[in-house]
Records
---
Amino acid sequence: MPEATFYVLQSDSQRERFAFACRLIEKAYRSGQFGYVLTDSDAQSQLIDDLLWTFRAGSFIPHQQVTGELPALKNIFLIGSTPTPQAWQKLVINLSNQSPQNFQQATRILEILDNSEATKEPGRQRWIQYKQAGFDVTKHEFDKAVD
């Protein structure tokens, strides 16, 4: 059964939300998983790209932004605001305010929400959408961003 996991941070800081995303990406990479990081804009994609290089000293996560042509290697994280490329649909880390296009193709979707209504209200709508599509949906709340 496909699953969607919502991580809800008590902070309303976008920076903390994106730093949390980097830690989840690192955890997935260390467990041998790769996927797509969906953002709302090219500017957000660039921010995530930059953070993945700097969020933790000594950390390396193979990644690149989607700029048109897809990479030959499939074992990297792609970052973009465009629909999820087919080879990266298994794991989607959603930082956008929309459901990933063709989300039904995903095995796992990780949603990261902060404590602002700007992310929580669209997140509630995605929760309903995933449940209606037969996803196993769970939620984890955090008082602060964890390392």
Note: The mean pLDDT is 90.
---
Amino acid sequence: MEYIYRPSGVCSRKFTFNIENNVIRSLSVEGGCDGNLKGISSILVGMNIDDVIRCFEGIDCKGKGTSCPDQIAKALINYKKEN
């Protein structure tokens, strides 16, 4: 299932997930730190969303109170609520 999330407070503008049975099959990120986010996206393929939330939730970037990983966790929390 495709799930689109628009993060806030970070450089990334859009996350597009493909999720099946609570496992991330792909993640595409628009904006942000291209190389880092391609790496993160690659690592997440095959991971259970609960594990990703546990690892990424609360990570801060430069005192912003959030980060791209934290926003990925928030996206997955929202996905769980909606599905």
Note: Helices lie at 34-44, 49-56, 68-82.
---
Amino acid sequence: MKRIAKLKLTTKIFIALIIGVVIGLFLQNDPDRAIIFQPLGDIYINLISLIMVPLVFTSLLLGVSNVTDIKKVGKIGLATVVYFMGTTIVAVLIGLLISNVIQPGAGMNLVPEATSSDADFPSVVDTIVTIFPGNIMEAFLEVDMLQIIFISLLLGIGVVRVGEKGEAFRKVVESIYEVSISVTHIIMQFTPLGVIGLIVPVVATNGLEVLLPLGRVIFAFYLAVALHIGITYSLTVKFWSQYKLKDFFKAILPAQLVGFTTCSSSATLPVTLNSMEELHINKEVSGFVLPLGATINMDGNALYQGITALFIAQAYGLELSIVSQLTVVAVGTLASIGAAGVPGAGMIILSMVLSSVGLPLDGIALVAGIDRLLDMGRTLTNITGDASATVIVSQLLNKGKRPKKVRGAQTQSVN
């Protein structure tokens, strides 16, 4: 028992997935008995839904408050945010393209309990209108995540505009945020039981073939990661900075490896800062861009949310319109702001994304066991994006130059 307690949560989840599959196969000819495990999954989904709103609301509001500090650094902040927004848009397009071409969940034919799917998003105009709530309490009671995100953004901006007068409100929100993180820690400990409760009935009803498409999900995701790093970041560094690609990737390789293994942009931050020193980036730029990127640069998350959400939709035979697909990625990316260091944030945000377009939350069980593998790619993408933003912003603002002692350098003057 002590050995099991010492295992990492991701290991426990993977073991729980295997146990759930074995039990599901054992009960394959008796799906009625498999339903006995369903309450475990239902309780877990309810717990996630319970913490989802306060966690996303407070983390996003605090994140916006921090981001608006870019006024202190003027052009650096503007250039950084514009770059992050541009690459995130490209990541959205790549993720949706890969999902629609490969269709990793096609042919699974799972039966959802109840969904509303595209019925909630009939047009672009209606989607935009529904973002603006007429009643704050109604938005929270109905768990309308688009409206909650808008409220968070609006209140975050308001806190910054009133300055010191908003500090009392901000402290209350920060306190709720800390409590939400603590509760999230508790809930995530029940994830293995939740996975067993969700996966046993699915395997008992559909058989082992229900898990085979997971390989396609992993392939689709890492193909998207490779395209985004190999094309988006590489081209921007090549044409918008003074660095050769070989030197750039050689310098950031240690940060990429640390991020890939730790799955934490924040934990990798010191290594990334050191990589920027090797490239002789001005500390005024790297000291701002990298911490900001660890909070708001969510290209990896945009790829992840798009591919996994569409996989779940395809698995249940549900069609998502282009509007709904864009909503999936937009909601997931915005909700990730400020939640980068939250344990289990990936699955919580995914559950929020699924509910925003009426997809069944049961689908979380399908990707929970491989979440760690996907999280590694998410972090790798985010860290590479942060580094590319740093060298590009440095070049655009002419805040740093590459000395002659660095091979392949092109001398530039600093204004």
Note: The chain has one domain: 2-396.
